[in-house]
UniProtKB/TrEMBL annotation:
InterPro entries: Solute-binding_3/MltF_N (IPR001638). The keyword Signal applies. SUPFAM superfamilies: Periplasmic binding protein-like II. Pfam families: SBP_bac_3 (PF00497). Transmembrane segments: none annotated. Residues 48-273 form the Solute-binding protein family 3/N-terminal domain. It comes from the Bacteria. Gene3D superfamilies: Periplasmic binding protein-like II. The lineage of its organism: Bacteria, Pseudomonadati, Pseudomonadota, Alphaproteobacteria, Rhodobacterales. CDD domains: PBP2_Atu4678_like. This is Amino acid ABC transporter substrate-binding protein, PAAT family. Keywords: Signal.
Length: 281
């Protein structure tokens, strides 16, 4: 693991070394022009890192039996803070509020299963992917289907502002039956809609559904099939134009993978070997 940086002077020396190393040894990482304001220095000076994390989205984020934040994203935030030598602060952030929380300054970064879409990139800046998954169609026991195309003409529960919503709308806009999406604020509402029959199905990530199926809350839900053509790459989001912070986080992600920490966390929270973070692998 990277040596923990205890103070700002050492941190700045460390950052200079990281920048040189990132350019020389990691040419695939994007190195941007320094922003006029340096969020990275501000975080170190403040002594705290405020991470926006979804705590209703296991195994990425949830509350344990004692009510404390836990999950893959929570531990990733803690690891980032450790390497910066600051205190982690987990700010519970629902899916539709991830980008607004970053823009408003409520959080410093978002480690919340955020897909780096081109539309979102107009508003915030993204790192390289730190996690990856697939999208799946889920039904209740009374509404089983066998393929994605069978969603035509059926109501689908979706969480607003998420990749599952984007994937469904991209498909249904080309269907003669049109779109029958039920737009909801969070996963709890989404699951309830399927259970109550207000929606025939829902679309979510395979990681979320694997965790849900392993719990009592998922006993009556069935994973039907993958959504074709969509890989759920997830990145850390930072304020728009904060390239120094983004570049440092890209190097952090590299070390998480190279040190085995990424694989360790993935095995802990998903129960399987970690997938490659390189497209095409």
């Amino acid at each position: 693991m990277i040596k923990i940086v205890k103070n700002k002077e050492k941190f700045l020396q460390f950052r200079q070394v990281c920048t040189v190393f990132g350019i020389a040894a990691l040419p695939l990482f994007l190195v941007g022009t320094p922003a006029s304001a340096d969020k990275l220095d501000d975080i170190v000076s403040s002594g705290a890192l405020r991470c926006g994390v979804m705590l209703d989205f296991p195994p990425l984020g949830y509350r344990d039996a004692s009510g404390n934040p836990a999950g893959f994203d929570v531990e990733t935030c803690n690891d980032i803070a450790t390497q910066l030598g600051v205190k982690p602060e987990i700010v519970e952030t629902q899916a539709p509020q991830r980008v607004p929380a970053l823009v408003s300054g409520t959080v410093d970064i978002v480690v919340g299963g955020t897909t780096p879409t081109l539309e979102r990139a107009k508003t915030v800046t993204f790192t390289d992917p730190y996690n990856v998954g697939k999208l799946v169609v889920v039904t209740g026991s009374a509404n089983k289907i066998s393929g994605f195309d069978e969603l035509k003409g059926k109501s689908v529960a979706l969480v607003r502002g998420t990749l599952p919503e984007t994937a469904y709308l991209a498909a249904c806009n080309g269907w003669s039956e049109g779109c029958k999406n039920l737009s909801l604020a969070n996963n709890a509402e989404q699951i309830t809609a399927v259970r109550q029959g207000r929606a025939n199905a829902m679309i979510e990530t395979n990681s979320f559904m694997s965790a849900l199926k392993a719990s009592p809350q998922g006993v009556d839900l069935e994973i039907c099939c993958n959504v074709p053509g969509f890989t759920d790459w997830t990145s850390i989001a930072v304020p728009k134009g904060e390239y120094g912070l983004r570049d440092w986080l890209n190097l952090f992600i590299f070390w998480q993978v190279d040190s085995g920490r990424y694989a360790e966390l993935y095995q802990k929270y998903y129960g399987t070997d970690a997938p490659s973070l390189q497209p095409g692998n």
